[in-house]
Amino acid sequence: MPAIMRRRTPEELLQQLQAEEAYEQTGRLKVFLGYASGVGKSFRMLDEGRRRHERGQDVVVGALQPKTSHEVEALLAKLPVIPLKTVDGIPVMDVPAILQRRPEVCLVDGLAYDNPPGAANPNRWQDVEQLLKAGISVITSVNIQYIDELRARIEKITGKKVTQTIPRSFLNSADEIVVVDAPPDMCISRASDDQADPGQASRAQKLSELREIALLLAADVVDRQLEAYLQRNGIASTFGTQERILVCLTPRANAGPMIESGRRNAERFHGDLTVAYVGQPELSSDDQAALDRNLAIARAANAHIEILDGEDAIQTILKFARERGITQIFVGHSTHEGWWERLTGTPLDHLIRGANDIDVRIFPH
Amino acid sequence: MADRPPPGKLKIYLGYAAGVGKTYQMLEEAQELKRRGRDVVIGYFEPHGRQDTIARTEGLEIIPRRKFDYRGTVFEEMDTDAILRRRPQVCVVDEFPHTNVPGSERVKRWQDVEVLIDAGIDVLTTMNIQHLESLNDQVWQITGVRVRETIPDWVMQRADQVVMVDLTPRALLNRLARGVVYPPDKAKKALEHFFQESTLVALRELALRQTAHEVEIRQVDYDSPGFQEITPNGDESGEAPRSVDRILILVTPDPSSAMLIRRGKRVADYLHADCFAVAVSRDNDLGDLDLPEREALERHLNFARNLHIEARVLQGQDVANTLVEFARLNGITHLLVARPTQHQKPKLFGRAVVQEVVRLARDMQVMIVADRGSRAHSQ
Q: What pLDDT tens digit does each residue of chain B (379 aa) get?
């Protein structure tokens, strides 16, 4: 189906080959992502283990949480378990035993556990990395509250402090991520939510916020996978599944409102904000100062900032926008319009005509 | 009439392709509800020959379908009247976006579901993300398939709950290869269209983002008693919940109008903005347009109304002037126009409508909407 192919350089091809070779030798990581305890992450993980076991794969359980439900117990009975060992009274996954046993797939729960001093790795997620490197695939489950980068935000919602965490990069490295989306069931608790007690409403609100964070986190990981896939297959087109906003600066642009609107739009769409400026030779000191002020506003808005280089500003912007999968370009109105522009069109007209697959938003000056 | 029951609740199981397990999960919940003592029936169920799923219907009462004769072929549809007579507490309705056979009482199954909900029956239903109206152009870009059976966004917004049924594309492709999803001949066809890995990954991302959006809009319930206790995300910015943005879409007879309306509605929903649509005509009864143009324009205005956008025709000699004037009078913050089409290229000493709008509307944002009607890649 894909027709727009990007030609790759020999270096890129070599890099890809090496990456593919390394990839073939490592295990696959699959993560079940939940937003609260009790949504059924462990169950989903074990159930997948059971199904693979029934299809003839060599599956073992490497680590489980101490407290399990009846349903989980029933699943466990069907799978071989490599027991945890204890170091200083703390349960630790028995990595050497698993490596020796060499299963195809290992199930690992409680991913955020810290190992005690004296264990091979400080954290359980590093144990998992070790298994993956040894060519063993791992299926694991994790609650978003343990993602290091999300910790502060989630603590604000739950009021609960978390000490053990997993870096976000570990999640990004997963081959597959599944969100376990089981909202508090509304149809069942019908009687109770009609005359909702405040405690319950607040709990529901908190759960809903956590649920949104989990869904968006999964979407971001999936977006990376999509991009990697498109790149691997040399497809230059983008699908616009995530909104990506590009604000174009000029020294004279009224950048404040434009960047603020970009920030707000990116936030509402849960998208991404880039501010770009096409370098011009010989700026007056006034213009340079204005530009610096605008770039400071962009930094404050947490935008990615790009200084672009190109003779034709419009073509440079369009090329950059396509490379980055931009879905909306924000620009200011043209400031002046002489007889030449009347005849041939303003730069803005050229941008509008060139950006056929990208929205263009023109801001008042 | 006094003792009209409170409306039933609607729960949507949202997926991104056939075979991810929507119906299965819906039936699991139906079984669970039955165990807890609720009166559950199946109003419509599409088995697709999937044994696992069929097994989940065991013990649930199925309301027989109604048979229709249409042009010599017998079709079966959900028997809404029979369900109303039976009066269950919960009804399972598969394939929410389905279009009924001509001659049915209502055009769309979601309209049948509305009737059930109005009668106080809770409904569990299933749909895939590609059937959401505002994503229609994007789905076409991604898949090359123009989905005809769509659900207006406001119908989904009205649901009490949207749940994502997630499965990784790789697991789905495995299922397809094992023949769990379709019989072999159909599976082969599916692999050539929707079931390409990049397509599935993109659709899945859209479904995840849409579900997150659906979760978010249900949070902004500032009247709920528990609200004061928690800190919403946008707290520091002091953003008021009421909409500050007002979006106006310029509708024309050009086919790009449908795309413009969908995009405008989507942007409006995400920005929590009000959304309006207008067409400009020199005559007040559209007499300046020829018949096909007038029909196209009316179709587009009705399309906008179906998506719950207030739409009307303005009278004026100059399109750009009339539009911008109206926008100013109505406090519009964003004007949405389609890209100039090939034959509207600027002439010497003359301008296309878009250029004229951009020139006149210097005090508001003008958004020239991308052409999502052409595909990023060909088949």
A: 557 889 999 999 999 999 999 999 999 999 999 999 999 999 999 888 888 889 999 999 999 999 988 888 888 999 999 999 999 999 999 999 999 998 899 999 999 999 999 999 999 999 999 999 999 998 998 888 899 999 999 999 999 999 999 999 989 998 888 888 888 777 777 777 778 888 999 999 999 999 999 998 888 554 433 333 333 343 434 444 445 789 999 999 999 999 999 999 999 998 889 999 999 998 877 888 889 999 999 999 999 999 999 999 999 999 999 999 999 999 999 999 998 865 555 444 446 888 889 889 888 999 999 887 665 443 3
B354 in Cβ contact with A352 (< 8 Å): yes
Task: Look at chain B and count its residues.
Answer: 379
Reported as type and span, the H/E element at residue A256 is helix A255-268
Shortest Cα distance, chain B CAs vs residue A359, angstroms: 5
Q: Which residues of B touch A225 (CB under 8 A)?
A: 201
ipTM above 0.85, yes or no: no
Which residues are CB-neighbours of A12 under 8 A, at least 6 positions away? Answer: none
What's this model's pTM, rounded to 2 decimal places?
0.83
For an interface test with B, the pick among A32, A215, A329 (most B C-beta atoms closer than 10 Å) comes out as A215
All domains of chain A, ordered by start, with CATH?
A: 26-232 (3.40.50.300), 244-363 (3.40.50.620)
Q: What is the CA radius of gyration of chain B?
A: 23
Which residue, A40, A194, A311, is CA-closest to B166? A40
The one-character DSSP state at B89 is S
| Closest-CA residue of chain A to B169 | A176
DSSP tag of B227: G
Residues in chain B with CB shorter than 8 Å from the CB of A263 are none
Set out the domains of chain B in order of their start, with CATH numbers. Answer: 10-217 (3.40.50.300), 237-369 (3.40.50.620)
SS3 B43: strand
Distance from CA of B103 to the nearest CA of A (A): 33
Chain B residues in contact with A226 (beta carbon < 8 A) = 198, 201-202, 205
What does DSSP say about strands B73-77 and B66-70: parallel, antiparallel, or unpaired? antiparallel
Contact criterion met (CB below 8 Å) for A364 and A355: no
Q: Are B126 and B108 in contact (CB under 8 A)?
A: no
Of B108, B115, B95, which is closest to residue B8 (Cα–Cα)? Answer: B115
Q: Please judge whether B198 and A30 are an interchain contact, meaning their C-beta atoms are less than 8 angstroms apart.
A: no
CA gap A281, A315 in Å, rounded: 17
Size of interface A-B (CB pairs under 8 A): 208
Cβ atoms of B301 and B246 within 8 Å: the answer is no
Give the separation between CA A311 and CA A14, rounded to whole angstroms: 32
Among residues B282, B262, B288, B292, which one has the least CA distance to residue B369? Answer: B262
Q: Are A138 and A128 in contact (CB under 8 A)?
A: yes
CA of A238, closest CA in chain B: separation in Å?
8
Chain A residues whose beta carbon lies within 8 Å of the beta carbon of residue B370: 327, 355-360
The residue among B301, B361, B304 whose CA lies nearest residue B333 is: B361
Task: Give chain A positions within 8 Å (CB) of B369.
Answer: 359
B235 Cα distance to chain centroid? 30
Phi, psi for A229 (deg, rounded to 5): -65, -45
Q: Where are the alpha helices (DSSP H) in B159-227?
A: 169-177, 184-192, 197-217
- Give the integer Cα–Cα distance in Å for B23 and B45: 8
Min Cα separation B68/chain A (Å):
32
The C-alpha atoms of residue A327 and residue A271 are separated, in whole angstroms, by 10
CB B252 within 8 A of CB B338: yes
